[in-house]
Structures are given as structure tokens and as C-alpha cells.
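Render this sequence as a predicted structure.
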Amino acid sequence: MNKLMLVNPGLIFSMFFLLLFPVSGQSQTGFTDVLSKKLAEYVRLFPREEIYIHTDRQEYIAGEDIWFKIYAFDRQILKPLTGNGIVYFEILNPENRPVVQKRIGIYDGVGPGQVSLPDTISSGIYIIRAYTNWMKNFMPDNCFSKNILVFNPLKNRSFKDKRAKVGTPAGNVTVLQQPGLALNVRREGNRKAIIEINSSPEYRSAKGTAHYLSVQTRGSMNFASPVGITGDITNVEIPGNLITPGINQITLFNISGRPVYEKYIYTPFDKAGMEVISEESYNLRDKVAASFKAESGSSEIGTDLNASVSVVPAGSESFPDIADYLVFGSEFGALPGELFHSDLDEIGRDTLDNILRGLKSNWIDWEAILSGKSPSVTYKKETEDHFLYGRLLNKTTQKPDSGHYVFLSIPGKNAYFQYALTDKKGEFSFSLPLDENLRDLIIQPEDPERNNNLEIENSFSLRYPFLWGKGDSSGMIVSEELSRLGVNYQVMKIYTSEDLKATTSQVALASGRKRFYGKPDIELVMDDYIKLPVMQEVFFELMPGISLKKRKSDYEITILDPVENKFFDKPPMLFADGVIINDPAIIANIDPELVEKVDAIKARYFVGDYMFYGLVNVITRSGDFSHFTLPDYAVRIRYRAIEETKSFSSPDYGSAEKTQSRLPDFRNTIYWNPELKFNRQGSCSVEFFTSDIKSDYKIVIQGVSKQGDLFSAEKIIRVK
């Protein structure tokens, strides 16, 4: 794709909004139809993505590895995203600044990952956050976020909780209500909901009796109907089969189509089952054989199940499982604290009602939907390509330079070329393959005389979560479990050398797979001819129809138009090792001994909408642009769209010799497997060995099927 264009979904949504007739004066059923259509169109243009990350633990020592599995979802249907993509993984320190950043590849919504904590960071509470490129449009709200505890025993034996709270403080959520109006909900039978509308005579006299009631869940309209409020109490019965499991938003609209009251309720999911089967206790360096059995109404669930498992000390902090997390996701801000201590279905009704009263969706906003106001969208979904963004600025004024071309080249023997046209903000983007290949990117403006600066945007979001309140300045007590983790890490660091293996082999710099211009009109292989002393003679003797001449102190390259039999009025595009150059003297002055071949296109040539008046590409024997000096107006970066993933390894005590080894085994994470393989019956088995630490350990499994069945389970085993 050579010319990248982003059609603004907000513009489409505004046009769609204008096509719908005004709500005032319309029929009652007409408004509910419009309401449903507007919601559906809004969700189509601004879909919500969610991420859940299963980490091996919640507490770490500075310098340790964090192992994790990414699960990415379409929030509306709660099924894994399809196709390929990238998740941007970060760890933020207590000052809200990144200390680790990594791009992780996902495939059909899942992907394993690993990062190493710097051993120089201080003790404290850090935040893991993760998001897709599309989610960057709605940052900092729309991202996965979880706290981890990091302890550095070499820098400080105790530490302070300096992190303030993240998200919207309690009591700051604006709840949509009206004086003289209230909604109560009773649940009966099979999820049936009785919505009781209480209204005062004063309210009905001022606002009228004709209203509309809607129920939506994660952007899907479950119910929309006119309702007449003719008395103090009006009951509306909604069958249970119409209400989608999850958090349901009930909204009452007045006759003008404006929302006047809002309430959230929770409809439980039918959770899929997962059984963990193993012995209850084991000896040191003993083999553990554990199996997992998934139970679901879906047929052949095992072949579509993607799951990860960790085995860690049982004293570790906990985090909500995948099913409970996705009930809230990032749609309602910070997760309720109660989820960190018990499962959602175990929370009491009064506590749950109190949680729901404080919710406000940061995705479904009826005021925005009904007014036609749309979110600003800059970042595209990365389902086929990774996008690299930048800005073209005037070097003197630092103002955006709009309506001008920017070029991307990758040095190599197969020329790679992209162009982009800057928008009114001076912004541009290029697409790169979704792979782990390391590429040498050279980006430059078309016209170097315009005195431009190129700014390449950081691929990670600079919109950080809002911190409110003050962090606790008192010293935190380091738990016995955390202290033991620190000792274990130090022992392992002394006695072992952790050499993590990449799941993919090391790759050299990648260039184009084929020349972007295809087969050239002239393909001059230098070794096929006698050696000539200068490039000017090479062009004169061996490149018919192409002239390289010296004009006073400069050189000029021109191409004879084969159609009109005269030289083009404009110069051809010149390349050296596939990189655009603007000075013909660079080609004229290179030693022909260094040149492997010269390609030339003699006719007009189009790449997308961009036209060349012919082109010349001089390819050196090294093919890496090492014989040329990069001009100061160009930017050169080495870039890998998806960063390499490491694989977890653990000792095998299958032989007596290894079992009796005197090297200590103080692993903090006993086992980690991000890619469990289930058979068609939904079963899976794993084997691993215990360490030299006597303790209780927790087996934790999280997973999802392609059909959206969510699985999680835990089991405690004892090593004695």
C-alpha cells in the first residue's frame, strides 16, 4: 500500500446523524428505531477493543522476567479479535513514566510475551498497561491496567507507596438523574427484569408522561420501547432472553429524545468450567503431572481453546480472572476493589449495587450518540500492517507543513519505496509488515529545499493515566513472602546463568522482497562489461537514452522519453541502494568498482498516485547504503514492528544425576506455559518439576475459546 488514507469515522457518523430526522415531533416507535440505528452505527464506526493480560505473578524482584499472555477481545461480542495485530505493552513507574516498553504480536487475539525488569529500578507499585493501535484513540481510559509490586532488595530494604490512585476518584462520576424520578429493578425467574419507574406528579406535570426506555449491553441494544408514565409507579417487564449477560445500561428518555435517567444493573454470565487435576502434595524436585478439563456447552471446545498456566507461590497477590475482568474491562474506569478479594458472583447484592451506582461508561454516551458528536480518530487498526506515524514541520517556525510528500526507503538490493502526503496537521504515516524482521528505515521529505524537520512519533501512547490524591508517604512493610522472593532471585542469579532462547532465530536486516518497480527497462550488471574508470563513462557507453553530464560545478541526469523522443522536462527519481537521493553528483562520484548493477526505468512510472519521470537505481555490491552519506534532512532508524518473544525454560530432574545436582533451585515461578494444547475433548496435560523451596504453590489457568467461552481455575499444591 503506497498511499495511506484514513477515512475519519467521525465524519461518516456525523453524515449518518444528519440523515436521521430530528427526534421532536416523530412517532414514538420512530424514535426507538432511530435510537437503535444510531447506537448500531456508532458502535460500527467506533468499536471497542479490550485486553486482558495473564501474568505469571503479581509481585516481582527488580531484574526478574515477567511472563505474560495477552488476550485481546471485541468488547461488543466478547470474542477474541481475529487476524494478526500488535499490542503495546508498558510498565509505568510510580511517577507515571515508562520503564519498559515492548510491541507484542498477537494472532487471532492472543499472543505470549516476556519482558525483563531493569535491575536498577526502585521498589514500589508499578502499573502494567497494554493497548492496541486502535485503542490509542481513546487513551488513557481504553487500556488494560493492573498494579504489580516490585521490590529491589539491593537498593532499599523498605519502600514507600508513592503512587497516587489511577482513574476517576469516587464521587466524581456524574450520575444522570432527575428530581422526582427514580428507577428500581427487580429480577425474577430466568433473568427477567421488572423495571419500576417512580415519578412524582410534579415531574409528570413538568416533563409529560410520554417517555422511552432502552436497555443496552456493550453496544448492543437489548430493548427499546415507548413507555407512558401515567401514575406514581409504572412497571415495565423485560423478558430475560432479551437481556445480554454483563453490565446493562438502562436509560429513560423524555419526549424530546433526551436521556433523563440512567441506571446500571448486572446480569450474570453462565461461566464455562475448568477443572485442575493433580496430586495434593509433592517432594522437592519432584515431577508434577497436572491435567486440565474444560467444560462448556460448545462442541469440540478443546480444539478452539487458547489458554495459559502459571505455577507460583500461593502467597502471591491475586488479580481478577479473565471472566470477571471483562465484565467491567476498561469501559467503566478503574476496577472495583472488591474484585481483588472475591469473585464477582460472590459479592453481596448491597455491595454490588453500590459498585453499579458509581459506574459511568466511557464508551456508550447517549449525549454524544444523539448529538452526532464523534470521538477524534487518528490511529488505524493494525490488522494487516503496523503503522509508523510522523510529522513534517518547518524548521524555523515549527509549524506543520501540510500537502507535501514524504518518502520511506529501506536500503537493499531490492528497492523498497513508499510515499505519504502530509495532512493539515503535517502528519503522515507509513505501513510496515507485521513481523519480527529488523529493518533499516530512511525517511525524508520530497523537497529538501523547504527547510523541514521530520518528527517520528513514538509508537507508544503519551497519554498517561490521571493520578489523583497523594501517594502514601509512610514506608510500606515488606512482606515475608516478598523478602523470600528477593532471596530466591539473588541465589538464582549467583548460581545460574539465565540464557533465554528466542522463539525465532536471529534475523539480519530485512529489505524489500522484490523491486517495487518490477523488471526495469535497463538492468546493467557491471561484471558483464569491461571496467570503466568513472560512472560518467558507464552511463555514456552502457546506458542508452540516459545521460549523466557535468554542468559547471554540478551533475545532471536526464532520461530520453521513449514515447515523444525528447528528454523529460523534469529529472528522474534517483536511488542509491534503493534509497532516494537528490544529488546526481552522488552517483557520478561513486567508484564503479563498488557498483554491482544499475537499474533504470525510462518511461513515466506511477506508484499509486505518485509519478516518476523515469528512475535510476545504482546498487552497490554491499547493498546497504554504507558508501553514501545520509543528508541531514533525512531520518534513519532501525525498527522492528514486533519485538522478539522469549521462551520460558525450567529444569528437568528426570535423571538421578540431575536430581542430585548441588546447584540450588530457588525459582520464583515454577512453571509458565502460555500455549496449552487441548484435545478435542477439552483436555490438556502438562509436566514440570518442583524446586528446592518447601511451600504451597498455586496453579492458575486462564483461557478463552474462539466462541468466547471464558475459562479460569486455581488449585493449591504443597511441596514438602
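Summary. The longest strand covers residues 595-607. The two ends are 60 Å apart (CA to CA).
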